[in-house]
Specification:
Number of domains: 3
Distance between the termini: 108 Å
Strand content: 5-15%
Radius of gyration: 31 Å
Shape: elongated
Helix content: 55-70%
Number of helices: 24
CATH architecture of the largest domain: Up-down Bundle
Strand order of the largest sheet: 3-2-1-4-5-10-9-6-7-8
Number of strands: 10
Structural class: alpha/beta
């Protein structure tokens, strides 16, 4: 390469060591590789690795593999494991944890058994060398995980099984590595195994218990996106560093931190978008390019022993992972495409494999030889290249088919009107909470289901109000854009705010309205305020009236009070779906309190629509028992009171007391008063011929109303 540059008149010393040019060339590769490889239908990950081979010291020797590749490569590796834990659906994972453990054990045991036999009999290595080399076959790295991200299939159960299995497999692999390393360092004593296990368990317990509480405390006090991003990165590297300190690999700590912070970072949120963006744009590509720079192409020419060792390693690694994935697929009666996805994600060798071979290469046996010789080192590099290529192609194939199947399933529901949420933004202090709530309630598969509205009254302060309205909409758009969500903004002049909301809802085919709870300005002011009361009287759309005392992502539980006969309302299925969707996005439990019959309908909706939500159900025989819930609702809970408009089947007179009850008994927690979608005109009487009318008014309520009317008449006379 250097001679070619001199021939065309350029004098550049290769390899380039200037950090500025190194960073520029890496960025150019990250930019151009996907563009070129997309036309060749080659997975992007392979392009990054091949680009590393090309520019590395074993290729054209363009760049020096300086400390930046060590630093960013380590960050990228931690980032892959962290994102894998962060994006795992914890509810789905609970249902698949046995499958994940099974895959992890099989992916460790099968390659270990085959590997030890082949290493002893075909490569003629010693026992300890054979065990360490076999553990390298057993380990794998989620190099192809970004492919599943790009196709949007990370929440498929096969992806979750592969991610969970990776944690199990790598834990066992690194445990073998720690034991063999300890044997040669003289660290293994009678209590070595117990002490290693105790340190691992204690640290895991600390991370599981302390990190979520620290994160929740931090997110409640600091809302700045940059500060939150830095905090999360600090937690990731703290977990990784602590895990490395106790003798395990840091990738386990990064994965564990991703799991425990899962509930605090919703899938559709600005913070999640920032984390994925930085990782996929810089850290992960840097890691992949760095892996490619380690690959020595010379092993393909003139190194027969290296080729023999590499051939055995590649065959055993690929065959062992295939057998493990196939057995898991058959044992749990999964589809062939799910088996392919598990195989694709669990095939690539990189992180733990490199760690094992470098440790083995640096260990000198009493005979003066290396535990793992240069043939194994070169074979490992070739193993990494081949397995990463195979993993990328298989994962790409499986992810593409899964994405097509999801799209086909979504197209079956096209006859149903698309939901669209209208978010009036008038108070700057509530914009963040309303938008955050809308982001977790919306259907993330839809692209344009959020509309932000600012209504301006035509009065003497029109210019001032218009400026404030524009700022409010810009803030709402900024929040949506930072989460990667499309938001339509509407600014309009109208006679009053209520009519502006109603007209905008009709013009944009809104199916639900999310609005902030009115702040009482005086003692005579009503709980909801005139605007909200007028809105509820003039629309039968679903309306969520919200008062959030803390960020949405820090809520730990949703407590829902459901009135009798709520299942007969037109919007019953819709609001149950929204509550379960919010619970799933926030990773918190939802408690439904209702009559036994209504609870049965809620369970039926969840089962039919496959709403994977951690839900518990409690019988509440009478709506008047609502006050008893105040003891079960803490400051970090969201209390949802399902209400109804006057004149519909689930309405009852005790709803009139709800504002007073919320103000008195639920003042220290976040509250949502949910009015379901209701169709038709209100009906004033209930009869057997008209079973969908309102609940029968109690006799003493009638007497009280008649007495009030009589007193009014007597006073007028």
């Amino acid at each position: 390469m250097e001679k070619l540059l001199e021939y065309i008149g350029l004098h550049i010393d290769l390899p380039i060591a200037d950090p500025t040019w190194i960073f520029f060339i890496v960025l150019a590769i990250i930019l151009l590789a996907p563009i070129i490889l997309e036309k060749l239908r080659i997975p992007h990950i392979i392009g990054m690795i091949l680009a590393g081979v090309l520019i590395g010291e074993h290729g054209l020797n363009i760049l020096v593999r300086d400390s930046s590749f060590e630093l960013f490569g380590q960050v990228g590796l931690y980032y892959i494991m962290f994102l894998a834990g962060l994006e795992m659906n914890m509810e789905d994972f609970k249902s698949i944890r046995l499958k994940a453990i099974a895959l992890g054990l099989l992916a460790f045991i099968v390659p270990m058994v085959i590997g030890i036999w082949t290493n002893l009999n075909l490569l003629n290595y010693g026992l300890l060398t054979s065990i360490l080399l076999a553990s390298m076959y057993a380990s794998h790295t989620l190099v192809a995980y970004p492919i599943a991200q790009r196709y949007g299939v990370t929440r498929q159960r096969s992806v979750g099984i592969a991610v969970g299995g990776t944690a199990v497999t790598d834990t066992l692999t690194l445990l073998v590595l720690a034991i063999i390393s300890g044997l040669y360092k003289g660290q293994v004593s009678e209590l070595y195994w117990v002490w290693l296990l105790v340190k691992f368990v204690v640290l895991g317990a600390i991370i599981m218990y302390a990190f979520p509480r620290i994160g929740r405390w931090f997110f409640r006090r600091y809302s700045d996106g940059v500060v939150q991003f830095i905090f999360v990165l600090a937690m990731v590297f703290l977990g990784a560093g602590l895990m490395a300190y106790v003798g395990m690999e840091g990738i386990l700590g990064a994965f564990l931190v991703g799991l425990v912070l899962n509930r605090l970072i919703p899938q559709v949120s600005p913070l999640m978008n920032h984390l994925e963006f930085v990782g996929n744009a810089l850290f992960i590509p840097y890691f992949l390019i760095g892996v490619g720079m380690l690959i020595n192409v010379d092993v393909l020419f003139g190194h027969i022993d290296s080729i023999k060792v590499a051939g055995v390693m590649i065959v055993v690694a690929l065959a062992g992972k295939w057998i493990a994935s196939w057995l898991t697929q058959k044992i749990f009666n999964m589809s062939s495409i799910e088996g392919s996805m598990m195989y694709g994600l669990s095939t690539a060798q990189a992180a733990a494999t490199l760690a094992a071979v470098m440790v083995g290469y640096n260990i000198i046996t009493p005979s003066g030889e290396r535990l793992l010789n240069e043939d194994v080192l070169n074979g490992t590099i070739l193993l990494i290249l081949v397995t990463c290529i195979v993993s990328s192609f298989i994962t790409e194939h499986a992810a593409k088919h899964m994405a097509i199947d999801e799209a086909a399933a979504a197209s079956e529901d096209k006859h149903q009107p698309q939901e669209r949420f209208l978010i009036p933004v008038a108070n700057p202090s509530t914009i963040d909470t309303l938008m955050s709530l809308a982001l977790v309630v919306r259907d993330h598969k839809a692209t344009d289901n959020l509309v932000a509205l600012s209504v301006i009254n035509d009065n003497n302060d029109t210019i001032k109000l218009e400026i404030q309205a524009r700022r409010n909409l810009e803030r709402a758009a900024q929040i949506a854009a930072s989460a990667g969500v499309e938001l339509k903004t509407v600014s309009r002049f109208d006679l009053n705010i209520t009519t502006g909301i109603l007209h905008t809802a009709k013009e944009n085919n809104a199916t639900a309205i999310i609005i902030g709870l009115h702040y009482k300005s005086s003692i005579v002011d009503s709980f909801f305020g005139n605007m909200t009361e007028n809105l509820l009287k003039n629309t039968y759309l679903e309306v969520m009236v919200v008062r959030l005392l803390m960020p949405v992502n820090t809520l730990r539980r949703i407590v829902v009070a459901v009135p009798p006969k709520a299942e007969f309302e037109a919007g019953f299925v819709k609001w149950v779906t929204h509550i379960c969707r919010m619970s799933a996005q926030l990773g918190c439990r939802v408690h439904f309190h209702a009559q036994e019959q209504t609870l049965g309908y809620i369970k039926g909706v969840m089962q039919k629509k496959k709403l994977n939500t951690r839900a518990q159900f409690f019988v509440m025989d009478d709506w008047d028992d609502l006050l008893m819930l105040s003891n079960r609702v803490n400051y970090d809970h969201l209390f949802v009171a399902v209400n109804a408009r006057r004149g519909f089947i689930s309405y009852q007179n005790s709803f009139d007391k709800l504002p007073t009850q919320i103000s008195k008994y639920f003042s220290n927690c976040s509250v949502m008063v949910l009015y379901p979608e209701q169709k038709g005109d209100p009906i004033e009487n209930l009869s057997f011929a008209n079973p969908h009318g309102i609940a029968e008014t109690k006799f003493y309520d009638k007497i009280a109303r008649w007495a009030k009317e009589l007193r009014a008449k007597a006073k007028n006379k």
